[in-house]
Structure formats: structure tokens, C-alpha cells
Amino acid sequence: MLSCNSVSILSTTRRSGRVIKTAARSFSAGVKFDYDVNRLYDTNYLNIPKLPIPEVEETVQAHLLSIKPQVSAEQFEKQVQLAKEFVENDAPLLQKQLQHISPEDGYPYSYIEKFWDDMYLGGRYPSMINVNPFYLLNHEKNPADQEQIRRAARFVNSSVRWWQKVTSGKLEPDLQRDGSPLCMYQFGSVFGFAREPQQDMDAMHYNPFSNHIVVICRNQYFKLQVIDDTGSAALSVNALQSKLEEIRKTASLSSDCKARDVGLLTSGDRNQFAEARGEILAHDPSNARSFRDVEDCLFVLVLEDATDVSMQDRSYTALTGADGSNRWFDKHQIIVDANGGLGINFEHSIQDGMTWNRWLQEAWHDMQGSDSGFSPLPKVETEFGDVEPITWNLSDTSLSNIQKAAQLAKEQINDVDMHVLEFNDFGRNLVKTWKISPDAASQMAMQLGYFKVHGKPGATYEACAMKNFWHGRTETIRSCTIESTEMCQAFLGNESDDVKREKLLKAAATHVKVAKGAQTQSGTHRGVDRHLTALKNIAELNGKDLPFFKSEGYIKSNCFVLSTSNVTTPFYDLFGFGAVVPNGYGFGYQTLPETLPFCITSYRSSPETDSKKMADAVAESLHDFKRLF
User: CB count, 10 Å around CB of 203?
Assistant: First the structure.
């Protein structure tokens, strides 16, 4: 289990739900994007501006404003004094050092990037639950296309052809509504990458021109070639369907392979996995090829035996599976259950939601034969594709390590308290008639819900995509504000409906300002978490343990008991992830036209949290809002 301190950086970087408004059809409006996929990471083809380094005084003032609801008046005054001493004494040198971290050319491409990457790759906690989020996609309208193998084949085919578009230099840039381009550096590594365990600091493995995927079925692994040797033709849907049927049939001939499922090691502690991987490689050098086949593949396809029907069961399958087996958490995984339910579990170290959404948008519309707003995917196909089993020669020590990983996975999964709130009473269409941003309304419902359950405001993180900056990833929208706290107090007090309505409108308007400040890095409510994180890391590198960063106010405001992210897309059923602190909640949500779905997670080991109680409080809060309009 992660502690508040160990996860404070993770919780401010891991999600990228609130997206910049984009205009898919404007890609041809004079924006030239000629690129080499091998150089996307290092080359600023579209001249995207660098993430600016804010002034320390502005960051500290915005930080003080954001923490005021979290602390007592006495604690706040103490924090003001500590902030004053920090700005006057220690901050100038730290800021000067920070300004020299990001060179004009070369890595790191932003002042936060090296600290950010080290946070992800240096975290020794399990990626399952703690790092990897999931999406659930809509079911197919045609029942024949919902059959497991048919659905997997169609989705794999569209995804592979989208990747051919990327690697051939044909991907159009994402644009903002004003026509300005967004950063595209992440697209060169969507497929063909893997997180590779190493002691203390993991590495990333890349092979964008891989021509195969790995299929996992009943804890058995298969290498399936999906692009021909020339790189020009993708395996057709019919050929994929035939190969996947063959794999499923072969896998059904063997039973109880979980004891030898090396993928279970990816669900656990990173140092333990690094040690276990080293033991497997030392035992038999031929095992290196098996690891390489998995790590080189474009992505992993999981054929799942589960027959999930409810959204909650589908969510557990996508987040962890029944017991952590039949998975490889160091790769993107497309998971198709026995009923054809399709979910995706994302390895999150180097990419964020807007990048995944672009892949899924084009693949989904290709499957449906509808217009994605971008150019069609290439349609050169082949009927030939090799299938090879992937096996490991394992020692008794390795089998024991797998058994230990299985036990740890079981403990982790049993600790997750997940509840899906399928709020179908109304959606964003009605909310807009209140003259309130749908995202702001959802955030205020979570604020009020938390206050109802816990009797106090809770430090809140909402992810904000920062692709308007070169190598920008996310910034934190600190949704718990003075205005949202006053709103909660009004609803739980004896105030009139007029006062409640006024407080709600004011809190929602402030939330919009906070979100804009985070995205643009400007204004009274500017984002503060990236800047303060960088300064704190530099202080630690200098051997300084500064009172400002040790203070109760700073620590409390960074312990995000509400970690939230909005990934609204019409063909997603749900989005979710694990809570980022032991006594907190994870909220993946959408603001759809007629529904407001939430996936809420917490931990059973915490005596403070209850996902079902929180879900009921959020639903009640939404009805409280509706009653006022």
C-alpha cells in the first residue's frame, strides 16, 4: 500500500482526463506535419512552446490560496510565514538551478520531465492498481460482431492499421479549436514499447517497427505476426479471426498453467520482479527470447474466460483480472471477455489519456465504418500470419517467485473496494441548462459527496492535459477551493435554496477558473504542483530538508484523498483507476449527454473510506443540485 508521502508526486501526474478542446476536422487547415516516427520524441516538428517556469512568488501565492480550505486558521498563518521564509531565503537558488535543468535542445525537454520520469520508473510499488488505468468500450450494435474472437479480430486489425498510419508519417496533428497544434511527441511510442524491470529504476524498451502482437489465453502466451515482412500489409480480420480461434483452441488443451504464468510477476513489487526476471534469464539464456517477444510486441491481446455482464464486473476484469494472472501489466493490454466486452489496461509511464483517445477514436470509427474526422486508415492487408507459442524454462526458484507474486496480487485485488455509479437520471444536457460547466457540476458533486461522508473538505486532484506545451503531460486542477467549501457548508447547513444556488454557481465558476489557470499556467489559480515538485526535488538533491515542504499544510494539501479524472468520449462505457492514497478515493468519470457515470475506488484496509457510501452521496448531491433549477 502506498503512503501519502510516497504517492504525492504520482497523484499529481498520473491522470490526464480533463482534455484540451480539439477540432479533429481542422487538421488540414494549413498545419504541415511531416515527421519521422523515430524522431517524434526528440524533434519539435510543430514548434510547440516549452512549458514555462513560473515565478516562485506567483506559484507560492496560488498554493496558499489552494490550501486554505484544508487547514485551520492557525495552520494557515504558519504556512504563510513558512512560505514567506521560503520565497526570501531558499527559493531563489532553487529557481536558478531549475532554470538550468532544461537545455535548449535535448533531454529533459521540460523542467519537470526528468523528475517526472524518475517518479514513474523509480516507483517500486506495483503498477497493477497503483499506476495502470482502464477504459471500457461500448458493446457492438451488431450481435455477430460482439462475439469474442470476432470482436478481438476487428479491433486488433483497426489498431494495427492505425499504427501503420503513425509509423508511415501520415498521422495528422491534433489541433486546438483555434487551429494551433498540440504536442505529438507521445505518438511515436504508443505501440511497441514496454516497461522493463530493473533494480531501483526501470527502463523503457522501444520497438515501433515490431510486426507482431502477443496473445494471452488461459495463462499461455502466443506470438502472432500481424504485419507482413515488408511492413506494408496488416493481417486481415478474417485471417486474424482464424488465428485467434486456433490460439483459443490450443490454449484449451492445457489446464492450470497459472503456476507457470510469468506475467504474474508484472503485477508486483518492481525490485522483486527485476530480481525474478534476472533469475529466469540466468537459469536458461533462451528465456531472453521469450521476454523479448513479449516486450517487443506492438501490444498484448488478452482473451479472457470471464463472462462479465455488469459494469462493475467488467471494471474489475479490466483493472486487475480475477487474480492478476493472464496479464502483462508492463504493456498496453486489450482485454476481450467471453461475452465480447472490450476493455483496455494502459501502461501509464510515458503516455497519457489524450494520446490513447486519438488511437481509439480512429480505430473505433474504422470498425464502425464511420467518419473519425481524420483521414482513413490504410487498407493493405494480408492473409498470412505466423503463430508461435512463447514459453519459459523455469527453475523451482522461479516457480516459487511466481507463487509469491500470485499471493501478493490476490491481497492487492481483495483490498480494492470498487463501486460503479451508473447515474442515469440526467447528464450534461440538463446540467448545461443550469448555466454550469458539466465538469464543474461533477466536481462539485464529488466535493459535496465527500463532505457528506467525511464531514470536511478533501484535497482534490483533477488531471489537466498539457499538450499545448512541448513534452507537456499533465498539471493538477486543485478542485477543492474556498468557494467549493462554502458551497458544501451551505448545503449541509440551514441556508435557503437561493443561497445554495448562489454558492453552487460561484463554486462552479471558480472551478472553471482553476481549470483554466492550470492549463494555461496563468492567473490567480495557476497550476502549482509541477513547479513545487521540481523545486522540492532540487532541494533534496542539494541535501536540504526545507521546513516549507515538511509543513503540515504542504503535506496535507498534497495528500489527494480525491483523485479524479474526466475522460468523456461517446464510445466509452467507463473509465477507472485505483485510489492514489490509502485513505482516499479514485474517481474516473464522464459527462455524457444523458448520463454521468463514475467508477469509484478505495481500499478495504482503510477504516475511513467506503466506495458505496461515497457513490450514494455523490448521487444524492447531484439530485440536490437539480432541485435548485
Answer: 10
CA pair distance 356, 343, nearest whole angstrom: 13
pLDDT, residue 31, reads 86
Buried b (16+ CB within 10 A) or exposed e, 272-309: bbbebbebbeebeeebeebbebbbbbbbbbbbbebebe
State how far the Cα of 575 lies from the Cα of 515, in Å rounded to an integer: 20
The CA-atom distances, in angstroms, between 214 and each of 89, 249, 281, 343, 465 are 55, 16, 20, 16, 30
pLDDT, position 21: 46
User: For residues 117 and 119, what is the distance between their CA atoms, to the nearest angstrom?
Assistant: 5
What are the φ and ψ backbone dihedral angles of 172, each rounded to 5 degrees?
-75, 150
All residue ranges of the chain with pLDDT < 70 are: 1-30
- Which tens digit of pLDDT belongs to each residue from 476-535? 999 999 999 999 999 999 999 999 999 999 999 999 999 999 999 999 999 999 999 999
Grid coordinates representing 512 are 472553471
CA dihedral 187, 38, 298, 579 (to 10 degrees): -40
d(CA 159, CA 153): 10
pTM of the complete model beyond 0.85? yes
Cα dihedral 28→33→36→38 (10° resolution):
-100
Radius of gyration of the chain (CA): 24
The beta strands (E) that lie in 346-407 are given as 381-382, 387-390
* Interaxial angle between packed helices 482-492 and 497-520, expressed in degrees from 0 to 180 and rounded to the nearest 10: 160
- Beta-bridge partners for 336: 303, 342
Distance CA(194)–CA(331), nearest Å, equals 5
* Crossing angle (nearest 10°) for helices 270-283 and 287-296: 130
In the three-class reduction of DSSP (H, G, I as helix; E, B as strand; rest coil), residue 408 is classed as helix
| pLDDT at residue number 563 | 98
pLDDT at 259: 95
Q: Is 470 exposed, middle or buried (0-12, 13-18, 19+ CB in 10 A)?
A: buried
d(CA 324, CA 409): 6
- Residue 4's pLDDT is 61
Other beta carbons within 10 Å of 58:
16
- Dist. CA 344–CA 440, nearest whole Å: 27
Partners of 50 in beta bridges: 470
By CB atoms closer than 10 A (0-12, 13-18, 19+), residue 590 is buried
Residue 330 near residue 195 (C-beta atoms within 8 A): yes
Q: Which secondary structure element, helix H or strand E, spans residue 344, and what is its range?
A: strand 342-345
* pLDDT score for 104: 77
CA angle 115, 121, 125 (to 5 degrees): 115
